[in-house]
Design a protein that fits this description.
The protein is an alpha+beta fold and about 220 residues long. The chain has helices at about 1-25, 55-75, 120-130, 150-170, and strands at about 25-35, 40-50, 85-95, 100-115, 135-145, 175-195, 200, 205, 210-224. About 35% of the residues lie in helices and about 45% in strands. The radius of gyration is 30 Å and the shape is elongated.
Length: about 220
């Protein structure tokens, strides 16, 4: 009998706890943090493209200029680990005149991705690459070699923003902000924001600033 009563008491206690949890008042907010920092690395896409009557001739010309490009990058201080082939292709050129589809030549292409860790040398690297025979430039992007510190600062700012938002809302509602119930990071990213251009060697380059952002979703208990 006593065990039955004890079991009933436990069930009722759990039921009451579940009801209390369902009726608990909570407040959910999203905080955002943003940190601006100067980039310290650039990634550029360079390549060589040639067209010739035969596939071998086109590829031979590309191979010669690509080797000269790689040697030039090495002479500019770019390490082998910072150069990666992105595309190596050979494709026919077609002529569709007079209703006939004929091959008129071949296009060979070799494109490499290059990480430049010294932004002061970026302009010189670009000039040297073009002089060496690179005739395919697909743009550049600025990045951080180690984004960990900026991301940590952005997360801390996001949590602070969430705390401040929640406190303001709780006060406006005449409630007291309780402890954090859940916290979830919604992701972070970086985006370039350009400011005054800085001249790097012979080619003017504007590194701008990278804005690293973080967002967190936080749920608080609301106390009466």
């Amino acid at each position: 009998m006593k065990s039955i009563v004890a079991s009933i008491a436990i069930v009722m206690s759990l039921a009451c706890a579940a009801v209390a949890q369902e009726t608990a008042r909570t407040l959910s907010v999203v905080g955002e943090g943003q940190v601006e920092t100067a980039p310290d690395m650039a990634i550029i896409s360079l390549g060589v493209t040639h067209t010739d009557a035969s596939a071998k001739a086109a590829m031979d010309r590309v191979s010669t200029d690509a080797r000269a490009l790689l040697d030039t990058l090495a002479a500019q201080g770019v390490e082998a680990r910072d150069i990666q082939t992105d595309q190596l292709s050979l494709s026919p050129q077609w002529n569709n005149d007079n209703g006939q589809r004929d091959i008129t030549g071949f296009v060979a292409r070799n494109v490499v991705s290059v990480r430049v860790r010294d932004l002061a040398a970026l302009g010189g690297v670009l000039d040297a690459a073009l002089t060496a025979g690179s005739n395919d430039f697909n743009g550049l992007q600025f990045q951080l070699q180690d984004p960990g510190t900026a991301q940590a600062d952005a997360r801390a700012a996001a949590v602070k923003d969430a705390m401040e938002r929640a406190a303001q809302l709780a006060t406006a509602a005449g409630a007291t902000l309780g402890p954090i119930r859940t916290m979830t990071e919604q992701g972070q990213g970086g985006r370039p924001e350009m400011f005054a251009a800085a001249r790097a060697s012979d080619m003017p380059v504007a590194p701008g600033a990278l804005s690293v952002t973080a967002r967190v979703s936080v749920t608080f208990d609301l106390l009466p």
